[in-house]
Amino acid sequence: MTEPINPTTKTTFKSMLNYQWIVMNISFFLFLALIAILYIANGHLTDKTIRKINTTQRELKELQFEYKTLKADLMRRSRAVEIQDKVAPYGLVVAKEMPVRLVQENKIQNHAQDISKENIQK
Length: 122
Fold this sequence. Notes:
Elements: H1 7-16, H2 19-24, H3 26-77, H4 80-87, H5 105-121
């Protein structure tokens, strides 16, 4: 016993793909085409952004290495021994005795007293 083939299924599918149906749904097809274009453009934009990020990360790593190198060089050059060696040809040496402190407090107080006496006399 064979089952009969349903002829209505073929006819409905065939009738769905006719010229009138396509014309009636042209706006839907255009909408789908627009979405496809936007999807492709978004993919390209994402790839471009990822390439920029990778380039920036590489530049950042290079700048970090350069910063660390310069910082280490500066730390080495700013040591007391290095500074003494660099200024020795100019006759500058480290003092062996403690520096003398000069007191100027009396001059400031005397100057303030002279100003107040002038204001009183006027």
